Give the backbone structure.
Amino acid sequence: MRKKITIIGAGNVGATAAHWAVVRGLGDVVLLDVVEGVPQGKALDLWQSGPVENFAWSVKGSNDYADSAGSDIVIITAGLARKPGMSRDDLLTKNVAIVKTCTEEAVKYSPDCVLIVVTNPIDAMVYTSFKVSGFPRNRVIGMAGVLDSARYRTFLADAIGVAPMDVNAMVMGIHGDNMLPMVRLANVAGVPIIDLLSEEQINEVVKRTQMGGIEIVNHLKTGSAFYSPGLSAVEMAEAIVKDTKRVLPCAAYLEGEFGISGCFLGVPVVLGDKGVERILEFKLTDEEKAALNESVAAVQNQMAATGL
Ligand code: A3D
């Protein structure tokens, strides 16, 4: 049966996600926004690429949540994006209100969907969606780890001089300056990066990964990254609609995993048609545990600021 993916927010990330969703063959796409005309225009344009790209999915733009009814996946990208000088936390108050409305409307029409939240600050926004939807934890997931890990893998590949797809590496924790690019586990086709790069080189890559978002904001000046973020959300959606059991780093609600409870945090997750099917827990070193706890403290502050 054809799957249906609704993307809320037809801005840079939302429109890019719609593009990747049809190219990757996920299903019919609804692009939804508050601004009249923008989702309609972008969807029409994208739909017309079907004969050239060889896809037969419908792509519909709308301002009406009724058009999202029966979606298997709802990706929330609605909200403000960062500009130079802004932290992700600066977006919090305005984006809580937006994500709240989007979630309420989306779940009214798609009570069985899996929600993928992209809006920043992500760890607080996915918590907002979780609280407002009343969904079980497996059906509310935040996108950040796929993107942060892609940045980490790109910079590692560049430093080592190898193809990026052969770099296995993940970023855990908060989507912010305290994120935790895992060094101990990172490898190139099984070869540990600690045997390929100096400590100084690794530290440089880790720092650049942590600042990966702001590096792009400072170039763009009027907005934030969208190619890789849009694709990263689709990577998660694809694992769910195709039930592939891929293991991707995602912001998942923890209930005791890694000794942490009651907040969303980036961890390795098995994604299948139920959403989060399993969190892959493993033993952390004391240093990694301490770094992850810094993430938890920062996420808890954000959660408190949502007022939920
Ligand atoms: P932008 O291009 O401004 O698009 C946002 C869209 O949301 C606009 O088209 C708005 O009209 C729309 N919108 C605003 N309010 C509503 C509403 N109530 N209902 C429906 N649509 C609405 O921003 P963007 O696409 O670049 O970024 C979108 C969000 O994603 C921002 O919060 C970014 O910070 C965030 N983002 C997160 C990541 C992560 O890795 C977590 C990466 C990149 C962007």
Summary: The two ends are 37 Å apart (CA to CA).
